[in-house]
Amino acid sequence: MHNVARLHDFSAPIVLRRIRPDQNERRFYALAVTADLFGNIVLLRSWGRIGTEGKQRGDLHPDYTSAASSLERLAGRKRRRGYLDWDICRGISPSAARP
Prior knowledge:
Elements: H1 2-7, E1 14-20, E2 25-35, E3 41-49, E4 55-61, H2 64-80, E5 84-85, H3 86-89, H4 94-97
Antiparallel strand pairs: 1-2, 1-5, 2-3, 3-4
């Protein structure tokens, strides 16, 4: 299975953050599709308070398409809950940050 994983061009991770100073909240959420040591397709999620290591979770998927679909669905859910793309938070337009 690892040969199939190597064929895919894994996309850059999506990094989101939500900062609400009035609630003392500074959180991040990162998503990436990658392959594990055995070549399995994994949706890797990391989250926590900015400045900490946070927590991680890896979800196995049968193929790249399934993992990418889950990534987009989770990113959309976080954006609806007030998370912004890291580049937007730094004042960089998304079109300038991505080729």
